[in-house]
Amino acid sequence: MTNAGPLIGTYGKSRSLQFAWYFLALLFAGTGAFVLSLIPRFGHDIKFTGDPALPYAIGFGGIGIATLICATTFILLRSQPAFLLYEEAIRVIRGKTDQTDRYADVEDLFLYPYGGFAFRRSPETPWVFAGGRVSRYAELTARLVEAHAKQRGERLFSELMNGHTIRFRCLPDRAAFSKSVIATRNLDYPTHDLVLTRHHMTVQGKSIPVKRIADMTTNWWIERSEIIDVDGNVFHKMHPAAIMSFHVLLELIGRLQQEPALA
To answer: Which of these ranges, 38-52, 53-67, 88-102, 160-174, has the smallest mean pLDDT?
Structure first.
């Protein structure tokens, strides 16, 4: 592995998730076994006038559900990759696959509205997903976002200062909203670009000077973000999750507005 600096943190399978599901399986199995243990006592110590097949259905049904929960949990956790955060890169290990991406190289980082993330180095590379099956995934997400904003932002800021144009891929609002309803791993939607230069931001045919951007607000109650100009007008509104690597965009806007030439 290319030197990526000191290891910051390791995030593997969620132990709390394992405990919760295996405990639930234990409850079903225990209930099923208890009901089965009562069957020999029916007609002797215990009066039972119902369908004779019912206790068997409950007993074996509980054990069957417990087995299904255990098997599903095992399969899901076995396929869960481990995430290692280094000072300059994120490393993902899944089975025989070992992938390392520098934060500065990651073009798209999608944050699910209610937890979890997905990232890819470019549209030509597959998405990598993380969610509740990862230990301390909220901490993992926060650290990844911070490192990505800083290091990807630093590279793109240098490109902007050299006259380059930067593009942020955006999902349609409907697609972004759908991830609030069902957080599926399908992110293969058509996208449009938010284009940023040293002096202007352009999105969906509208352009605004960077120096006139006053605020970029987000309201998760109504699931809407707005770009506000210095006159208090809404330049553009979109779903909060629509702009991928949104935190990098905020970093760049903030730094551009500090440049004396734009003041």
So the answer is: 38-52
C-alpha–C-alpha distance, residues 57 and 61, integer Å: 5
Sheet strand arrangement including 213-219 = 213-219, 224-229, 234-238
Q: Against a cut of 0.85, is the pTM above it?
A: no
DSSP state letter for 263 = -
Q: For residues 55-67, b (16+ Cβ closer than 10 Å) or e, as one string?
A: beebbeebbebbe
C-alpha dihedral sign at 92, 97, 100, 106: negative
Gap between the Cα atoms of 226 and 240, Å rounded: 9
Amino acid at position 191, single letter: T
pLDDT in tens, 186-234: 898 999 999 999 999 999 999 999 999 999 998 888 889 999 999 999 9
Q: What are φ and ψ of residue 5, in 5° steps?
A: 90, 180
> CA-to-CA distance for 197 and 206, rounded, in angstroms?
14
Q: Which amino acid is at 235?
A: F
Structure tokens at 167: 């593009």
Q: What's the longest Cα–Cα distance across the chain?
A: 93
Distances (CA, A) of 131 to 11, 90, 115, 118, 166: 11, 16, 7, 9, 29
Q: What is the DSSP string of 18-58?
A: HHHHHHHHHHHHHHHHHHHHHGGGBTTTB---S-THHHHHH
In 172-198, which positions are buried (b, 16+ CB within 10 angstroms) versus exposed (e)?
ebebbbbbeeebeeebeeebeebebeb
Q: b/e string for 224-256 if b means 16 or more Cβ within 10 A? A: bbbbbeeeeeebbebbbbbbbbbbbbebbbebb
